[in-house]
């Protein structure tokens, strides 16, 4: 009985790790916050939660993302066994056959929900799921295209909100560029951290194709772009209450231009963690836009 209970616990843990449940929860949180406090004109939380299409889009997005993590592990499991051995061992408590059934199930439910909402939403998520599969199957091994595609896929669910609410404000565009550049920087930093393993398993990344120094030069260019966008957002009237966040982003990014040249892998790991935390903090900061409590004035 004890062994049976332990096995069930390991299978559940394996499932949660394979679908990256923490990332999915963060995606759901970010989408709800963005929909209510950024994209939508109506700040009434109760009214927003009565919006069936909003819930459907977010549910379809989260299911597609979970399916994407499953198929990505399927293609990357040899590399992950060396690069992330503990995580890889945990995920192997679910067989690839069962995992692929979950992949089909999640995608099917996502498309069914999308089809019930509208044919346009259905087409959107069909394209989204195809790009996820194509990235895992082909694009993840093509230099720089892998970074661009991976970063763009993170923004895809927010593109669904962007199109649904038809909010084409310039500051929304700048916020999208801000998030895209930040995720792109994180993704290239991950390549710097794992380039030896990427080279071993024939993944063509910037570090093992161009070299470490050219990659860091590219990172510096991206950081400079991030600084420019952050300064612009600091003076954006619609983001007045949270302008301190973007000012701090510009200052921290300025310090990273020099520190990025530190070659120790431990620093890259810290930098990746800091970027993830900063993206999370940026998501939470959206709660304070336009007259919400605890404004971040300075």
Helix/strand layout:
Layout: H1 2-18, H2 21-39, H3 45-49, H4 52-83, H5 85-91, H6 96-117, H7 119-137, H8 145-165, H9 170-200, H10 206-209, H11 212-234, H12 243-259, H13 265-285
Helix pairs in contact: 2-4, 2-8, 4-5, 4-6, 4-7, 6-7, 7-8, 8-9, 9-11, 9-13, 11-12
Please compute the radius of gyration using only Cα atoms. Answer: 20 Å
- Alpha carbon gap, first and last residue: 59 Å
The parts where pLDDT drops under 50 for at least 5 residues are 291-298
The count of helical stretches stands at: 13
Strand content: under 5%
Largest sheet: none
Shape: globular
- How many strands appear in the DSSP assignment? 0
Fraction of residues in H or I helices: over 70%
Order of helices and strands: HHHHHHHHHHHHH
Return the CATH class of the largest domain. Mainly Alpha
The number of domains is 2
CATH topology of the largest domain: Tetracycline Repressor, domain 2
Structure classification: mainly alpha
CATH architectural name of the largest domain: Orthogonal Bundle
Mean pLDDT: 88
């Amino acid at each position: 009985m004890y062994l049976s209970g332990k096995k069930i616990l390991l299978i559940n843990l394996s499932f949660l790790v394979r679908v990256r449940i923490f990332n999915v929860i963060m995606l759901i949180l970010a989408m709800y916050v963005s929909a209510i406090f950024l994209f939508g004109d109506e700040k009434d939380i109760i009214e927003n939660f009565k919006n069936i299409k909003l819930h459907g889009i977010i549910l379809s997005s989260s299911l597609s993302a979970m399916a994407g993590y499953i198929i990505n592990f399927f293609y990357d499991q040899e590399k992950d066994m060396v690069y992330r051995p503990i995580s890889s061992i945990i995920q192997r408590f679910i067989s690839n056959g069962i995992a692929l059934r979950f992949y089909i199930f999640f995608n099917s439910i996502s498309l069914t929900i999308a089809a019930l909402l509208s044919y346009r939403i259905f087409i959107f998520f069909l394209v989204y799921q195809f790009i996820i599969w194509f990235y895992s199957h082909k694009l993840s091994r093509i230099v720089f295209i892998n970074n661009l595609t991976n970063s763009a896929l993170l923004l895809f669910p927010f593109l669904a909100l962007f199109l649904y609410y038809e909010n084409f404000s310039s500051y929304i565009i700048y916020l999208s560029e801000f998030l895209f550049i930040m995720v792109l920087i994180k993704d290239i930093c991950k390549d710097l951290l794992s380039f030896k393993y990427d080279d071993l398993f024939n993944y063509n990344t910037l570090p093992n194709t161009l070299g470490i120094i050219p990659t860091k030069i590219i990172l510096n260019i991206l950081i400079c772009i991030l600084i420019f966008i952050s300064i612009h957002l600091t003076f954006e009237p619609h983001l007045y209450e949270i302008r301190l966040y973007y000012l701090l982003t510009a200052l921290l990014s300025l310090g990273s231009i020099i520190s990025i040249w530190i070659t120790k892998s431990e620093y890259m790991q810290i930098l990746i963690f800091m970027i993830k935390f900063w993206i999370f903090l940026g998501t939470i900061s959206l709660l304070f836009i336009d007259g919400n409590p605890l404004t971040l004035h300075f």
